[in-house]
Structures are given as C-alpha cells and as structure tokens.
C-alpha cells in the first residue's frame, strides 16, 4: 500500500535507556556494596521495571562494571582537560591536576561515594579496569619530568623508576581518597577546601616528582 508522503511518520524509536540505567546503578551502588545491591533496587532508582535493566545488561555484574568504568572515566576526563590545555607539563600543572581531581570529587559526590565504597573494584572485570587505570595514570606521571630525567623505557632504571611512580601514584590515590571522604562525611568538612587542596598538593607534588622539599628554616 502506498503511503501518503504528507501523512505523519512512524513514531521515532525510543532512545536506549542504557545511560540512564548506569546513572541509577551508580546511585544505588554509592549507597550499597556490590553484595548488598540488587538489580531490583537499581530498577527502582531508575523508575523502570527490572526487565528493562536486563534488556540492556546481562545482570548486576555487567551493570556494576559499566558504572564503575564510567566513574573512573569521569574522573580522568577532569584531569585530561587540564593536561590537554597545558603548553608544558611541569610541577605547576601537576598541582593543577591534583586540584582538578579534588574538584571532581566535590562536584560529583555520588560517583565519589561509589568509588570510595568499591575502591579497587568489586568484580573480576572492574578490578582489571582499575588496575589498567592505575597503570595508565602512573605511566603518565613521567610526562611531568624533564626529558633529561626520563630513562630509556627498556632500562633497569626505567623499571625501577616506574615501580617508584606506581607506588607514588597509589599513595596519592589513597591519600586523596581518604582526605576527600573525610571532607564529605567527617571532621575535615569543617576546614576550608582551599587550604586542604594546597596542603595535599604540597605533600603529593614532591612525591610524584621525586623532588625533595626544602628543610624548614
């Protein structure tokens, strides 16, 4: 049958609710551990039926993995914005990166609570995602060093320096997470954010750069 070209078209296909469900899962997992949360609770958070969740995701594990990766990507995007606009990566830019990470934590409290509650991941895939994320950021720490301070990648010195950077990044991550969590819910919430940012950067920049702080006079 010939369709009248002036007749109303078929209703547009409803866009996928995948992103909406991931946001709901992030909220649910920010309140409950992976073991405690259920697909039904995620569905309630999104205002959809559980069957809608299963239509887009294979189950709770896949949903958690996607929400976890999305939170890490959001945090990284805030840092990438600073790095991408810097002419040269140096100590000052590293300090700005730390400030940006702190700002993301403050302006994304749901995602921050999610990552705090499930730091390191809660499933095999999310743990692999976290390890890859850590390694990527640890390797990028070398970008802040002068070319003359970067050893050849295949050398023993490079491997030792990389191990040192990875340890420094882990220290940075743990310290920031602890400070930011206690700022959200604990005694640090009474302190001005600007003072905390500067104090943390004063500790972390020398650790990441491998430089020594001058002795107090």
Automatic annotation (TrEMBL):
<dbReference type="Pfam" id="PF00440">
    <property type="entry name" value="TetR_N"/>
</dbReference>
<feature type="domain" description="HTH tetR-type">
    <location>
        <begin position="15"/>
        <end position="75"/>
    </location>
</feature>
<dbReference type="GO" id="GO:0000976">
    <property type="term" value="F:transcription cis-regulatory region binding"/>
</dbReference>
<dbReference type="InterPro" id="IPR050109">
    <property type="entry name" value="HTH-type_TetR-like_transc_reg"/>
</dbReference>
<dbReference type="GO" id="GO:0003700">
    <property type="term" value="F:DNA-binding transcription factor activity"/>
</dbReference>
<dbReference type="InterPro" id="IPR009057">
    <property type="entry name" value="Homeodomain-like_sf"/>
</dbReference>
<keyword id="KW-0238">DNA-binding</keyword>
<keyword id="KW-0805">Transcription regulation</keyword>
<dbReference type="InterPro" id="IPR001647">
    <property type="entry name" value="HTH_TetR"/>
</dbReference>
<protein>
    <submittedName>
        <fullName>Unannotated protein</fullName>
    </submittedName>
</protein>
<keyword id="KW-0804">Transcription</keyword>
């Amino acid at each position: 049958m010939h369709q009248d070209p002036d007749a109303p078209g078929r209703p547009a296909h409803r866009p996928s609710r995948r992103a909406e469900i991931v946001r709901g899962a992030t909220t649910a997992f920010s309140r409950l551990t992976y073991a405690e949360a259920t697909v039904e609770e995620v569905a309630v958070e999104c205002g959809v039926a559980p069957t809608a969740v299963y239509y887009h995701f294979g189950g709770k594990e896949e949903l958690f993995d996607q929400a976890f990766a999305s939170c890490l990507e959001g945090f990284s995007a805030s840092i990438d914005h600073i790095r991408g606009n810097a002419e040269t990566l140096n100590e000052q830019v590293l300090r700005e990166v730390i400030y940006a990470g702190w700002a993301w934590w403050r302006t994304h409290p749901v995602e921050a609570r999610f990552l705090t509650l499930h730091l390191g991941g809660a499933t095999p895939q999310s743990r692999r995602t976290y390890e890859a994320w850590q390694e990527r950021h640890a390797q990028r720490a070398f970008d802040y060093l002068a070319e003359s301070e970067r050893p050849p990648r295949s050398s023993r010195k490079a491997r030792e320096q990389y191990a040192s950077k990875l340890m420094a990044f882990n220290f940075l991550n743990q310290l920031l997470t602890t400070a930011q969590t206690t700022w959200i819910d604990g005694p640090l919430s009474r302190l001005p954010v600007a003072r905390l940012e500067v104090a943390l950067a004063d500790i972390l920049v020398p650790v990441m750069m491998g430089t020594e702080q001058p002795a107090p006079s």
